[in-house]
Amino acid sequence: MKNLVFYVFLGILLTNVSLFAQDISFTAKDNPNDDGGAIILEWDVPLTYNEMVITRSTDNENFIEIAVVTPLLKTYIDDENIEDGQEYFYRLSLVDADGEKQSFETNALSSAEWFNTDKISLLIMAVLLGTAITYYIFSARKGKRLYIRKISGLDTIEEAVGRATEMGKPLLFVPGIMDLDDMQTIAGLNILGHLAQKVAQYDSTIHVPVCRSMVLSTAKEIVKESYLRAGRPDAFRPDSVFYLTDDQFGYVAGVDGIILREKPAATFYLGAFYAESLILAETGFESGAIQIAGTAMPTQIPFFVAACDYTLIGEELFAASAYLSNEPNQLGSLKGQDVGKAIIIITLLVGVILEMCGVHFLKDFLATH
């Protein structure tokens, strides 16, 4: 019994001695792959310390408290008010169970890196995509024919113009409610050019109400150029493209009034739309017009699908613009993006197969932090 008590006492004593004999380390280093806005602090402290306070200084004299941590935490990232190129001094103050205090100091220089090595995979994908787009743009400029699948909704443009001519009614084109800085508006205006040329050839009439001044000027020039291409510049009416208002629902009310008064044979909603999409499409449906819509706004596509005869969904709007304009930059961009999508799909399939085989190289390589 005496031996057992002795060995238990000896074990406890050795444990305490080993804890107190453990070296205490406190280090600081610049956070890698950032803009110089963070310092990483690391420590190795025995669990016997109850209170740990980290303070910071830029002159090694005036320290301010930045965090209260525990020995179990092991690391802390200081990213509050850290400036690139500034040296920071840190002090770790410890208080043990008996109230005895110790302090450890370290310092580090924050620095920004030109390149984030954690995102090499993104760089490779960007280079591949950029190379594909550039290659197809130059190929298109040299006259190489790039195949693009025809979208069924585009076939109805000529049908709609012919129907409007037979009925003696106008067509209505709405390029959305956004300005020229939105790609959907630009895609819609490209389609307007093709539509206006058909209108000029069939000697029909088109109304283009807009809600942005820049869109007004651009749309007017596009329609005028289309009439010129069709060989009928004298038939162009400058007032066929007109401004209503910048206000969202004021614009919708104005367009709805045009639909109800003019009873257009066909209506086109091609651009960026928000809450007004269903109001416009429902009014056009009630008037009996052929309706063709296209937008990349995911929340509005269901309304157009429900109320319109044909809908260009998402990227089909941009594909239609490239298809009709036959412009090399747009065609090349479209083909290059398709190549990029194919690369991503193949990478995903290969990654799934490798993961099923227990090989994690590709997943680790593609992971970014």
Topology:
Blueprint: H1 2-21, E1 25-30, E2 39-44, E3 49-57, E4 64-69, E5 75-78, E6 87-96, E7 101-109, H2 120-141, H3 152-167, E8 171-176, H4 183-202, E9 206-210, H5 213-229, E10 241-243, H6 248-262, E11 266-272, H7 276-287, E12 290-295, H8 301-307, E13 310-313, H9 315-325, H10 328-356, H11 361-366
Parallel strand pairs: 8-9, 8-11, 9-10, 11-12, 12-13
Antiparallel strand pairs: 1-2, 2-5, 3-4, 3-6, 6-7
Largest sheet: 6 strands, parallel
Overall pLDDT: 88
- C-alpha Rg (nearest Å): 34 Å
Shape: elongated
Query: Could you spell the SSE succession in H and E letters?
Result: HEEEEEEEHHEHEHEHEHEHEHHH
Spatial strand order of the main sheet: 10-9-8-11-12-13
Low-confidence blocks of residues: 12-21
Strand content: 15-25%
Total number of β-strand segments?
13
> Count of DSSP helices?
11
Helix content: 40-55%
How many angstroms separate the termini? Answer: 58 Å
What structural category do the secondary elements indicate? Answer: alpha/beta
